[in-house]
Amino acid sequence: MITVNAEGMDFRALNERIRAAGGECAVINCAGQRFLCAGAASGEITAEGVPGNALGAYLNGARITVFGNAQDAVGDTMNDGTITVHGNIGDAAGYAMRGGCIFVKGDAGYRAGIHMKEYREKVSVMVIGGRAGSFLGEYQAGGLIIVFGLNKGEKPIVGNFPCTGMHGGKMILRSDCRDIRFPGQVSVRPAEEADKALIKKYAAEYCRLFGADEAAITDSPFTVITPGSSNPYKRLYVAN
Amino acid sequence: MLKEGKVRIPSGCAIAAVISVNGERMSGETVMRAMVPMHDRSNGLGGGFAGYGIYPEYKDFYAFHMFFDCRDTRKKCETFLKERFEVVKGEVIPTRKIPEITDEPLIWRYFAAPLKSVLADLQLDEKEFVARTVMKINSETEGAYVFSGGKNMGAFKAVGFPEDVGRFYRLEEYGGYSWTAHGRYPTNTPGWWGGAHPFTLLDYSVVHNGEISSYDANRRFIEMFGYKCTLQTDTEVITYILDYLTRRQGLTLEEAASVTAAPFWSTIENKKDEYEKERLTYLRTVFPSLLVTGPFSIVLGFEGGLMALNDRLKLRSMVVGEKGDRVFIASEEAAIRAMEPQAENVWAPAGGEPVIIRVKEGLY
Fold first, then answer.
1. CA distance B338 to chain A (A)
2. Chain A positions in Cβ-Cβ contact with residue B314 (cut-off 8 Å)
3. How far is B333 from chain A (nearest CA, A)?
């Protein structure tokens, strides 16, 4: 694999180098360069240092692994592929993503999974190992958000106002959620057998990527949040 | 020329700050480094810095940093100052001629103390007198602008990219226990020297990334108390609000943060701690006009410390990290790593959660 030293490079030059390498490279010394691998349809890229905002924006099938933290807007509008972050991610991760997976070892900032989508076989997935900030899954329209809340300490698994405006998809939180307030338009229930299969699948993948204990994750109460009806905004503008 | 929609300018303002809790003096180079990876957040229409502890030899005097449009204005202002202050030193602020920074005004600094006789006559305390003098110059003297006027601190700002502004002002030659920095992408006002950040009053300085939507409501309220918003820019009003709440109303910085970035009523309602619930209710009820809405992340510099604060919805990014006795704040983690590659405990404060770092007592 080719190694690209990002030191002193601006984002255009760095992205050109990555494309020139056919999308197969190890990028070292990232220092905030934006749009890394934007739109990449294939290849496998690893990044060390701190990649900049909008990492993997419009990603279309490539696989990105970050050995450290990532900044804001990871996987903005991504369509396919996988982004794996061995650290924390900033705000608005997975903004409007419509396919592919984002795995985060640690915490997510505010507005993770805002306006995530799905269409038929394309189901976007975001797995957050730590805790998530406020407005998790805001306007969620589809896809799956799972938060494990590992190493969250005294803090709640999610900040204020989760699921505001949620009207599609599913959210699963590893908590009984007794202290969390959800808006009126979502239904909140403990995980059932079918959910547990889904939880097991993603817990196993999380452990494979980051080396955690799967039983310690799955052996815990989980709460599932879905929109209260299949079309909660049906009558908001016109009857259709 | 490319038109709207044909070119993307990925900008959004940048802020950064560093402080030594042990009061060790750092050159301006540390915080200048932070602005390099965030270059694309600015568009070259403003950059600036504030340094604290930079004038130990004049620490008992107010350091007025001033722009003048011409020699006549300077002479007029000096006469005005000398009627009210003992001016112990007046000099050109040293700059470096570089092609990136052009059209500079006359840039001077004065170290001065208010005349005791004038204070006694006006029955004003020293800080109030200095604040009023600065407001008077900035609102009434055409072509003159005080861009900082605190003790043992100073702002340095210009039209240009922040890295260039730092070189222009030779910040590597100053030593301060804390520094703040800003790269500007002006949204509503033209980029001019006075409009660059930081905005200051007395020893307060504010660098801001965002665009507050409550500007006019805040301005109308604060102007009732003698503050004059002369720059048409939202950051100025934040500086005056923080001065009003802390210096004039005697609130702590934590309380001032609870006023300006007050939680939603529903969030207050759900607080389990009854004291906290009452405290937040009281502050929102007494100062409703000082709630600052819309996106902001700011760093307030003050004598002996820094405060970082996000709007309650956290519509702008901000991260904090530390290493040894140093604490770093920036819009992006990459900027923190540029200041200190080995920074530890990098975390993102929640919206409305103030992060206050003070130099240990007696060390500044």
1. 8
2. 91, 109-110, 133-134
3. 7
Which residue type, as a one-letter code, is found at position B338?
A
The span from the CA of B20 to the CA of B23, in Å, is 5
Q: Which of A76, A110, A136, A178 would best serve as a mutation to test chain B binding (most B beta carbons within 10 A)?
A: A110
Confidence at B6, pLDDT banded by 50, 70, 90:
low
Closest residue, chain B, to A10 (C-alpha): B37
Looking at the 3D structure of chain B, how many domains does it have?
1
Q: Which residues of B touch A134 (CB under 8 A)?
A: 313-314, 350-351
Query: Which of A52, A66, A63 shows the shortest CA–CA distance to A101?
Result: A63
Query: Residue B52 has which token pair?
Result: 């604290």
Q: What angle do CA B142, B146, B151 make, to 5 degrees?
A: 160
Range of the domain at B27: 14-209+297-358
Structure tokens at A20: 């020139």
Domains of chain A: 88-227 (2.160.20.60)
Closest partner residue to A32 (CB to CB) among B314, B334, B350 is: B334
B319 part of contact set with chain A, CB < 8 Å: yes
Cβ separation of A91 and B348 shorter than 8 Å?
A: yes
A17's tokens: 């180098």
What's the CATH code of the domain at B327?
A: 3.60.20.10
- Placement of tokens 């190493």 in the chain: A151
Pick from A49, A71, A134: which is nearest to B332 by CB? A71
**pLDDT tens digit string along A153-195?**
889 999 999 999 999 999 999 999 999 999 999 999 999 999 9
Whether B321 is in a domain gets the answer yes
Least Cα separation, residue B197 to chain A (angstroms)? 23
Could you report the per-residue pLDDT of B158-215, keeping only the tens digit for each?
Answer: 999 999 999 999 999 999 999 999 998 876 666 789 889 999 999 999 999 998 899 9
